[in-house]
Design brief:
- With 555 residues, the protein is of the alpha/beta class.
- It folds into 4 domains: 26 residues, no CATH class; 186 residues, no CATH class; 147 residues, no CATH class; 92 residues, Ribonuclease H-like superfamily/Ribonuclease H (Nucleotidyltransferase, domain 5), CATH 3.30.420.10.
- The strands form 4 sheets. A 4-stranded mixed β-sheet has the order 9-8-7-10. It has a two-stranded parallel sheet with strand order 1-2. Strands 3-4 form a two-stranded antiparallel sheet.
- Strand 3 and strand 4 form a beta hairpin.
- Helix 2 packs parallel to helix 5, helix 9 packs antiparallel against helix 10 and helix 19 crosses helix 20.
- The protein is flat, with a radius of gyration of 31 Å.
């Protein structure tokens, strides 16, 4: 049974209008020019793709208008952009390739929204947009760029080997926009697919490098065919405990599983367009910096300092804003980031003679170099109170400068120190409210960490097995050693050592444990107390991980 109220008929544009009306009346159905929309996009797209995707721009504009009236902080705006605005387009990005003109408009709207300081402000961009779209680990803000799209929701259902054999140079006759989008997703997947060598039958000529009996590498042949650096990496690849087929995996994640995050990071790293505007100064490890236990506004404040994105007077004047370029504290030089936080005579006395008593650099050292080394000196020893004092003082300089310029306040030394003290107290209170103890590195909360692996926990061990591994990253050479001690007499029961190749320090530790347990099995030791300085090894033995680089060693 057909519901005539919910049904309609659609004709080709080539059908005359009078004939459409005649057929529609004959069928007792209404005639519509399109099939409608699904998830915000038209089902049948015409030649103009920009017209079809224009509702996305209207949707983002409408949402930005509602958020602009909330006076959000820059840190809150980042959350809104990535978790709300761009997340609302994920279902479309997973199916279609958005035209460049539409994605550029959306990107420009997001950038302008982040730089705006008020509901009626147009926003003044002080850094190139590419810096904002760069991942946080590379010194950017991690705003998702819409151009490197990951069109893989359909492609991901396919078998990986079939993707490697796909002939991308083959041409399809009149492909639809959805088909072109899927082809674009296939090219994205091909960037990160690689073979995990089992018996070496799938990749060409790899089986000739393996011993057919032991299924191990031929070291002599590999060293004869490849340079020493490449040969070391080949010999570092683990071999399966039993003969198995080769398979394809995603090489940009530890567990061989595809993730949009890893694919996006790789596409951004390959895109010169996104990285060309990044600051050449990377004074601190950005991935660790964003995890520091400090206030979010301080993180963005430091980010703006190192990217010259603070709206100091000299920068505003270069952008055409009518401001007084003279420093608000010394009234002698132009106000730049370098002068405001280091070269100003008033500020230099505060850094050196104030409560912090910080030693100032010589004049040939830039502010970025000095400030980054100052931060690293307290971060390396995890002196969070000292970090609070430094950042609160720099923050107080910036706040007091704004009060002088825009609120007609007078330069007051007690007021500046009061602002710094208030923000130090606020940061310490925020950190103390967290349950995580930042003073203790992860994995070192207690002097010893023990875990029961197998057997009867009521039976005491009789033998201690101590394992250790060392690894040289330059040539992938590794050394493993293990020794046994009697738990009753504390006497040595012997041990051994071995040299081989590994891909990581953890793999060397894991191989040392493997060889030590094999020797213990040969000697008939059944009640063993294993000791190691690698906490990750203990957790892996207790609960095996899916790390592809060591999965066969774990087995």
């Amino acid at each position: 049974m057909i519901n005539l109220q919910k049904s309609f008929v659609r004709f080709s544009p080539n059908v005359p209008e009078d004939y459409r009306d005649f057929l529609a009346n004959s069928l007792q159905l209404k005639s519509l020019p399109s099939l409608g929309t699904y998830l915000g996009l038209p089902v049948d797209m015409g030649r103009s793709k920009c017209t079809a995707f224009k509702p996305l721009v209207d949707k983002i504009t409408s949402r930005l208008t509602s958020f602009s009236s909330l006076n959000l902080s820059p840190a809150a705006k980042l959350v809104v952009i990535n978790s709300v605005l761009i997340a609302s387009l994920n279902h479309i990005l997973s199916l279609f390739k958005i035209p460049s003109s539409i994605s550029d408009k959306i990107n420009n709207l997001l950038v302008r929204f982040w730089w705006k300081t008020g509901n009626h402000s147009k926003g003044l961009a002080l850094t190139p947009p590419s810096v904002l779209f760069t991942p946080k680990g590379l010194g950017g803000l991690g705003i998702r760029h819409l151009n490197p799209q990951l069109l893989v929701s359909r492609v991901f259902q396919a078998k990986y080997p079939s993707l490697l054999c796909f002939r991308s140079q083959g041409r399809l006759s009149y492909p639809s926009w959805g088909c072109r989008s899927v082809l674009h997703g296939i090219q994205t997947l091909k960037i990160g697919l690689a073979w995990k060598i089992g018996n070496g039958s799938k990749p060409t000529l790899v089986s000739s490098l393996l011993d057919p009996i032991s299924n191990a590498w031929y070291p002599t042949l590999i060293h004869a065919l490849f340079p020493s650096t490449i040969a070391s990496k080949i010999l570092s690849l683990e071999r399966p405990p039993q003969l198995m087929d080769d398979y394809v995996y995603w090489k940009y994640s530890r567990d061989d599983k595809f993730s949009s995050k890893s694919a996006y990071a790789k596409l951004v790293a390959l895109s010169d367009q996104l990285l060309e505007g990044s600051s050449p100064i990377h004074p601190i490890t950005w991935s660790k910096f964003w995890a520091l236990p400090i206030l979010p506004k301080w993180k963005l404040f430091i980010w703006k300092i190192f990217h010259n994105a603070l709206p100091v007077a000299d920068t505003l004047r270069s952008k055409g804003r009518p401001v007084d370029p003279v420093c608000s504290f010394c009234f002698h030089a132009s106000e730049t980031t370098e002068h405001l936080f280091l070269r100003c005579s008033f500020i230099r006395r505060l850094w050196h003679c104030g409560p912090l008593g910080i030693r100032l650099p010589c004049f040939n050292t830039s502010f970025h170099q000095w400030f980054s080394s100052l931060l690293l000196s307290v971060i390396s020893i995890k002196n969070w109170d000292g970090l609070d004092s430094i950042l609160s003082f720099a923050w107080a300089i910036w706040i007091h400068r704004k009060h002088i310029r825009f609120r007609q306040s007078t330069c007051s030394l007690p007021m500046l120190f009061k602002i710094a003290q208030d923000w130090t107290t606020r940061s310490q209170a925020a950190r103390s409210s967290s349950s995580f103890d930042y003073s203790i590195p992860p994995g070192f909360g207690s002097p010893n960490h023990s875990s029961f692996l197998a057997g009867n926990p009521n039976i005491s061990p009789t033998v201690i097995l101590i394992v250790d591994g060392a690894w040289d990253s330059s040539d992938c050479r590794a050394g493993m050693s293990w020794c046994f001690y009697s738990l009753d007499t504390a006497s040595s029961l012997g041990g051994a050592a071995r040299a081989c190749f590994s891909l990581s320090a953890f793999q060397a530790e894991l191989q040392a444990c493997l060889f030590g347990l094999k020797m213990a099995l040969q000697r008939g030791y059944s009640r063993i107390l294993l000791r190691t300085d690698c906490l990750l090894l203990v957790s892996i033995l207790h609960r095996p991980s899916q790390d592809l680089a060591t999965i066969w060693v774990q087995q």
